[in-house]
Here is the input.
Amino acid sequence: MTTTTTDIESRLFIDGEFAESSDGATFESLNPASGAVLSNVAHATSADVDRAVATARRAQPQWADAPLAERARVLRKTAELIEANVDELSVLESRDAGKPISDCRAQVAGTAQWFDFFADVSTHLRSDVIPSAPDHLNYTLRQPMGVVATITPWNYPLPLYGIKLPAALAAGDSVVLKPAEQPPLTALALARLMREAGLPDGVLNVIPGLGESTGAALVDSDVDMISFTGSTDVGRKIAAQAGSDLKKVTLELGGKSPSIVFADSDLDKAATGALFTFCVHQGQLCSAGTRLLVEDSIRDEFVGRLVGMAEELRVGDPADDSTQLGAVMSQEQMDRIEGYVESGIEQGARPLTGAERVTVDGLENGLFYRPTVFEDVSTDMKIAQEEIFGPVLSVLPFSSDDEAVGLANDVLYGLAAGIWTNDLRRAHRFAREVEAGIVYVNTMNALAPWSPYSGWKQSGLGVEGGIEQAESFTKLKTVWINLGDDVPSL
Ligand code: NAI
Ligand code: MG
Here is the structure.
């Protein structure tokens, strides 16, 4: 695999073949660091969507009935091929999504781990025998959902294919993937690798396109389940659309996660973690800790230290190994960040650092933003309540545990929450009381394929990761076998 412009695959992947869209339409994928067009990508029409879904429908029974060892082999081989192509995939992801190359390398390796883990899960998805009287055998069967639509956002392209595809494939489903339109290219590169790994034609189909056309057509099509990651607004829309014919939906949506720093914590580590969680990938992370709750007694010292560290971060060319913050995904995303920062200032919050774009030498058309820390924030301000998806932090002081928990829960979202403390009782109480699907104590944003997580409140429905996720890609069936002589009678 190479990533020269001429070699980038930018066509639809249906039934094991790459093809132009039915009407020949394309859309541009840009490199956000330079503004240059990276590729013209085939835009799937509703006819293409139907063809991809019909192909997946046709291929699914054979995949479901394939020997489990064969399913596991394909997933494991995919993991190996991802690892073998880490450089090419990282360069492509970095150019298509504006991410620092060093982040991309780590994320490509992480993606391989998801395929590897679910290779094992495919042979471990057990059903249960239910206790019953001796004259009955009562057991459950877990059967594949059928055809699963996966719709993913732009912030973590490859890692999200890792989070979605192997679990569904391990469960015996076939998949139609609509990647985000901003960085669609590594989805097609991955499809090529999965074909090479021996995935039968039609089991995975990739149909790039815009959300309101290709995405909406996929939700409306003859699929059995939709697994979506993206914004809460679009998640609600998809759930409503799918509700009309009761398709199963799982949603991993936005967040406004608190990271809470107590005076008793190791403040060096807390500052490092608090900086990481709001700045990683330019803040474009669903579980970013963008509400910093700091115990009043250490507020000035801690915030001062954090601001100093934020000012030393290297914002620059994603292709440069030493870059820590790369480009923001799109002009639309930049407008959104600038709009929120303006609203924070208008509502009376004070930026201690940042609140401005950065010009990077040689990349004057690139989209770069300086990490921004606001104080004098009140919990009802837009910057404290809404997901910005940029490196913008709101600092809120507290002076008691109850106040900290109250502030942590005072948002519509409930994805992640972090607490920095050396008091075990405090940590455990917080873990129980905070309304979030993932709680981090003295760390932030840890993730592993074998560890399940879910969004609470407006952050989602369903589970990702772990055997639990593969189970969610199945339908449960209960079987009663009568081993005795009696039958039900009136
Ligand atoms: P989005 O939710 O609009 O897009 C996510 C995916 O859904 C894309 O593949 C898109 O094409 C598709 N989509 C859009 N409208 C659709 C529809 N009506 N039917 C079916 N599919 C549709 O997210 P967007 O616009 O890329 O980002 C906007 C905001 O969403 C961000 O600023 C951020 O706040 C949030 N977001 C949250 C993410 C998360 O991981 N929770 C990831 C990306 C964005
Ligand atoms: Mg792009």
Remarks:
- The pocket of magnesium ion (ligand 2) is lined by residues 29-30, 38, 96, 182-183 (CB under 6 Å).
